[in-house]
Amino acid sequence: MSSQKKVRVRFAPSPTGGLHLGGVRTALFNYLFARHHGGDFILRIEDTDQTRFVPGAEEYINECLNWCGISPDESPQNPGAYGPYRQSERKASYRQFAEQLVNDGYAYYAFDTAEELDQQRQIQPNFRYSHENRLSLRNSLSLSAEETARLLEEGVAHTIRIKMPEEGTVSFEDMIRGRVTFETNLVDDKVLLKADGMPTYHLAVVVDDRAMQISHIFRGEEWLPSAPVHILLWEYLGWGSEMPSWAHLPLILKPDGNGKLSKRDGDRLGFPVYAMNWKDPKTGDLTKGFRELGFLPEAFVNMLGVLGWNDGTDQELFSIQDLIDKFSVDRISKSGAKFDFEKAKWFNHEWIKRLDNSILLPQVVAVLASNGVNQVDEEYVEKVLVAVKERMTYVSDFWEQSYFFFQAPVSIDVDAVKPKWTTEKTAFFENLMSDFESLEQWDSTTLEPFFKAKVASSGMKIGELMMPFRIMLVGGKFGPDVFLITELLGREEVTSRIKKALPLF
Hints:
Blueprint: E1 8-11, H1 21-36, E2 40-43, H2 57-68, H3 91-103, E3 107-110, H4 114-123, H5 145-153, E4 159-162, E5 169-174, E6 178-183, E7 191-193, H6 201-211, E8 216-220, H7 227-236, E9 245-249, E10 252-253, H8 263-269, E11 278-279, E12 286-287, H9 290-293, H10 297-305, H11 320-326, E13 337-338, H12 341-354, H13 357-370, H14 378-388, H15 397-402, H16 423-438, H17 444-458, H18 462-474, H19 482-489, H20 491-501
Parallel strand pairs: 1-2, 8-9, 10-13
Antiparallel strand pairs: 3-4, 4-7, 5-6, 11-12
């Protein structure tokens, strides 16, 4: 890495729908690299394909990055000195470079219509526009200069294609994969400028990366086959000495079998693959996301950060600052990483336990509100949170694990104890209620020995009375420590619940 070159990296998604976790990981690795080296992280919206543009997608991308805590330094919403940050707003800049490539003999005008190309595909199923057939198709290489000039003057629709060399190789040093080499005769003549004047990804990405002074490019390995085209464009446009460093990230693989993790895999196996809920504005279809499922951003980022990267130790839990401090490209795996949803849930569980209660509190208060509990004492809620957080996989689990702290149980599992119920046990709990009234200290450290002493003096076994006590308070055989429950519910509520439950046994 050149010491003179400031680190500038970019995440450049297309606004075409929900953000796949592979895309978020690409953004995250860009962000970590930039922060580790004191550089800039840029968001560029690649919206040159207007046919695939989806309203609301750009706003969704921004919200995802903000939720993850990896907000860009420069973006359409926060422009810097290298804008504009949407490709559609840079349209005027692309044609001059495409024309320059034609004039220098590195590209050509192609006048073939979509119908003519479809006919070629019917004749040859694996048809590709390349050195093998370019002279038999309608372009400025096969037509005379006069005919080409006439078609251009008449405004006949045309594209501009790169002229890939018939012989030779393109090599570059990938920061993850090492030396990568391509034979140019195996690469087709990609369209650089479409008939509507908009650039394709191939031209736009090179022009934009140079204009924005991007120093390092992190992108998915699915773009590796396009690398020779992009490298040649850097050289053909005279910018070879400014070319960024490249890193093609390994794929995130489906949990079972081989291949890239897709939305269909998530639907099939029952987990999200998008960062946040995405509702298709055309169809109304809702695709669920990690955020709405109850994932913490800290856990989501941690999970993605170690998916295909490690710091060389057994450490698994990393804050985003930990990841920034330790991130290095040489620790990124060359091979794909299988996505494991059970492991993702483990990360969330660990972060729920680890995260400061002040951060979780507003979220659990919202969970209570969604379940009809609106008037809450936050100090009490925090105590309940401490009691149940080790039992939570998602933030939304708070209600299931704690509802009995906020309302008396609707049903009592009397069947669990009724077969062995005795009048002695009834008398025990009647006396217990009376004794509770005179107890000076009301906390778990006082309540537990007090209860156990009462059991011992009764001659009965602790298990015979502990379980009914729990069931009276919460309705079933679940929940945290029963004496902690007793403490938090308070003397009056505990007595009330015993009194209501006792006649059912």
